[in-house]
Design brief:
single chain; alpha+beta; 5 domains; TgpA-like_C
Length: 825
């Protein structure tokens, strides 16, 4: 296949890979890159091979201008939309160029556009798929550059092909179905003007570039380039402590987790449809570190919302300034605990509280020895935060560790001890003011939820009374939870607005009375207000429920789609569920209620063990490693994962060798073992004499070793040349020959070629009748040198073994010649 055709195919493949990089992870936008990929391969046949469709340069410029105008209106949207508009523009220009006759200019433009596509793709998507696609892209790019170099140099040395190349720019305005042979210029569509290598390049180069040797060299170059890139990427220091690749390529602001100090009912459905990674959680035993297996979906608490604003259909936290925070303390004894290690996605920005960055965790949480002292706990609201008084733009930590109680099953798993730093009066005020108020209409005259209020009264009335004639608040709360979950009257849906039947009602009232369809926040909101109508303090809690368990990495991958809302109601110690002793919760407890019916299979179910599931777990683990050690590789992670282990393993073991204190201790102990005790003065006569004796011994030992080595080296060198002849088959043996001859008085002039020099030495030996035994070995060594250096040959094993013997013969003869000269003088 001719070089030009290889170059056309390589450029089309490069353009296709650049378009595919844009297509990865772009959802609906992926259609256009895929069409561009098809156009790249189609253009090779219809334009480069058949010559059916070829655009003139003027027509192509006009089409490019239309593409720019067509993409201009997309630049008025958000930042991500601007990047998508740039990506579309690059694809439009690429398609226009692909259907032009290929010239040096067109090849350069296509290569540059493909490189720009890689840059835009990196800003849009930095997943592991992007990294894997970069490997074939780099290989194709290097191949394209090599072929382009050959093509350009061949045109440079052939005037006829150069003239045909320049004539391509003067085509008619548009050619459609012109067929082969209609192009008098001799380029695309004309097979008579092949750009060949034979006759244009030296024979050895044409053989290399026209065979598989060039592609083998490209593979080697790609491998070493990849290795060098990896080494430089991880070794080059990052001076910006907050910098990371993902943030520098457009992800600096990150994506919100969806939870702020307020949340709207209409936003929750959008959050639940997002597949963006938030954090990974590994649960292990505290002592052994063994993976903790669980069959239930853990709740990762974020924040609690206490006040509903009817005008905005929004829940808010309330006045955080009234609630004090405290440091996390070690866990109290007497129960089982589990260690949770949470690694966060640094491109996903966690929200902030008044105390710092909001953290997600199973709750209540306690400190381990690895827990950061900057983590604070708002025990009243049940909110964990990373304190950041000095840096207001502090991001969430890359990883944090907490200890939590382990109640996987039973009633206790839904109970949390009530802990708060408030006085009894302040806590009762919090319950009455924030957690038992039912919102009223805009005139503060009537309730917004008459149907909800009636339903709550009916459910509470149906609860059986206890021995004292009162209905248990825990029984009422659990009955209301069962009404949503088990009675079958309500359905789960992320698309709420189409189901609204009466827009004049509050969405929560309309949900309970009319359409009875909603997502988790509708269920939680309805249950919280129903509990408040019965004077049971209740609040809405938002966070994440469950996660996708990765059997390969042994962790739970928590994503945005696992966002969840549930309810907590406060129960006094005398109102706890049946079977719970009041003395276990002397200050009361928070009862977790989840009124949302099952909307999907449990994401925590173990893998079925199929090959496909194993592959998905493996790919997710690779994605996680790519995100941790490539995209989010910043100064702190580089120091912790690379520099610190390197110094601990390589530098610290040798610290004693450069430590003055360690050497002083060594000498002092050595002398004391010999019965010599040094004083603490800065000068000691005994120590000085001892030091001089040691130095004298070292000098004598060095001289003895040097004398022995000097006398034995010629014999060792000959033995080495005899034992390891394979190491002398390279062209370097010729330069050893020159050095031996130089010692005997034959110096090579700068103007002499190796053959001219050896011929002169042989002629001199014959005229002077000296060194006759080395004439034939020198001729053989010279011939082998030329075969290796200029013929690209590899010597046979017998020849490789003979090199060492021939060099030994030459060395012996030159030594004899030197001795004769010295004797003659």
């Amino acid at each position: 296949m001719r070089v030009e055709r290889l170059l056309q195919i390589s450029v089309a493949l490069l353009a296709a890979l650049g378009s595919l990089l844009l297509a990865i992870g772009q959802g609906g936008f992926a259609t256009l890159p895929l069409m561009a990929t098809m156009a790249a391969f189609l253009s090779v046949y219809v334009t480069d091979i058949r010559g059916w469709i070829t655009l003139n340069r003027n027509l192509a410029n006009f089409a490019a201008l239309i593409a720019v105008l067509f993409s201009f209106f997309d630049f008025w949207d958000a930042n991500d939309a601007k990047l998508v508009a740039i990506a579309k523009l690059l694809i439009y220009l690429q398609i226009v160029l692909l259907f032009q006759p290929k010239t040096i200019r067109v090849y350069w433009h296509l290569a540059v556009l493909s490189l720009l596509q890689v840059v835009v793709a990196a800003a849009l998507n930095m997943g592991v798929s992007f990294g894997l696609m970069l490997i074939p892209y780099s290989l194709t790019a290097l191949t394209t550059l090599c072929l382009f170099f050959i093509f350009r140099e061949t045109l440079r040395v052939d005037p006829e092909l150069r003239a045909a190349h320049d004539a391509v720019e003067n085509r008619p305005l548009f050619t459609l179905f012109g067929g082969k042979g209609t192009d008098s210029s001799g380029m695309a569509g004309n097979p008579t003007a092949d750009v060949t290598l034979v006759g244009q390049l030296p024979a050895n180069l044409s053989t290399v570039f026209s065979s598989g040797k060039m592609f083998a060299q490209v593979l080697k170059m790609s491998f070493f380039t990849l290795c060098a890139t990896v080494i430089l990427f991880y070794s080059f220091p990052r001076f910006d402590e907050g910098g990371a690749l993902g943030q520098s390529l457009g992800g600096g602001l990150g994506t919100q987790t969806g939870f702020k100090d307020q949340i709207s009912l209409n936003e929750m459905g959008q959050i639940l449809q997002s597949d963006k990674f938030v954090m990974r959680v590994r649960l292990t035993e505290v002592d052994s570190g063994k993976l903790k297996d669980t069959e239930y979906e853990p709740y990762f608490r974020g924040t609690s919302l206490s006040t509903y604003i009817p005008n905005n259909k929004t829940w808010i936290v309330g006045n955080l300034r009234e609630y004090r925070v405290s440091e996390i303390k070690p866990p109290p004894p007497g129960q089982e605990y589990v260690r949770q290690t949470i690694a966060t996605n640094q491109n996903m920005r966690f929200d902030r509280t008044n105390d710092g960055v909001l953290l997600f965790s199973m709750y209540p949480a306690y400190a381990s020895k690895n827990t950061s002292p900057d983590i604070v706990d708002n025990q009243t609201l049940g909110i964990l935060s990373m304190s950041s008084d000095t840096r207001t733009n502090e991001r969430q930590p890359e990883e944090y560790e907490l200890i939590v109680p382990w109640y996987p099953f039973g009633t206790k798993s839904n109970l949390r001890p009530c802990r708060h730093p408030l006085s009894d009066r302040e806590f009762r005020s919090y319950l009455t003011r924030d957690l038992t108020q039912v919102p009223l209409d805009k005139d503060f005259a009537n309730t917004l939820f008459p149907g909800l209020w009636k339903l709550a009264n009916d459910l509470a009335t149906n609860v059986t009374t206890g021995e004292n004639g009162e209905r248990s608040q825990a029984a009422i709360a659990q009955r209301m939870e069962r009404y949503f979950v088990n009675d079958g009257n309500y359905t789960y849906s992320l698309h709420v607005l189409p189901h609204l039947k009466n827009t004049r009602l509050d969405p929560i009232e309309d949900f309970v009375v009319n359409h009875k369809t909603g997502h988790c926040e509708f269920f939680a909101s309805a249950l919280a207000i129903m509990l408040r109508t019965q004077d049971i303090p209740a609040r809405v809690v938002v966070g994440y429920k469950g996660g996708e368990f990765n059997s390969f990495g042994k962790y739970y991958a928590v994503k945005q789609k696992h966002a969840h809302a549930w309810v907590e109601c406060y129960l006094r110690s005398d109102q706890l569920p049946a079977g719970v002793k009041p003395e276990e919760f002397p200050n009361g407890a928070w009862l977790r209620l989840d009124p949302t019916p099952a909307s999907r299979l449990s994401p925590n179910r173990q893998s079925t063990g199929t090959i496909f599931d194993t592959f998905l777990d493996w790919f997710d683990y690779v994605e996680l490693a790519w995100r941790d050690y490539v995209v989010d590789m910043n100064y702190d992670r580089q120091t912790k994962d690379i520099y610190k282990p390197l110094t601990d393993n390589l530098v610290k073991p040798f610290e004693g060798w450069i430590s003055r204190e360690q050497w002083m201790k060594f000498f002092r102990n050595t002398l004391e073992s010999m019965g010599i005790h040094l004083s603490d003065e800065w000068f000691s006569g005994i120590a000085s004499i001892f030091t001089m004796l040691i130095l004298l011994v070292l000098v004598v030992f060095f001289e003895i070793c040097r004398t022995i080595l000097r006398h034995a080296w010629p014999r060792l060198r000959r033995l080495f040349a005899k034992w390891f002849p394979a190491s002398t088959h390279r062209a370097g043996f010729y330069f050893k020959l020159e050095r031996m001859l130089a010692k005997a008085g034959w110096q090579r002039d700068k103007s002499d070629t190796p053959r001219e020099f050896i011929d002169r030495v042989i002629s001199d030996c014959r005229s002077r009748n000296i060194g006759g035994e080395m004439v034939s070995p020198m001729s053989e060594l010279l011939d082998w040198y030329y075969q290796i250096r200029f013929g690209g040959r590899t010597l046979a094993p017998q020849q490789q073994e003979a090199i060492g013997e021939y060099l030994s013969v030459v060395e012996q003869q030159t030594t004899v010649i030197r001795q004769k000269k010295a004797f003659a003088k």
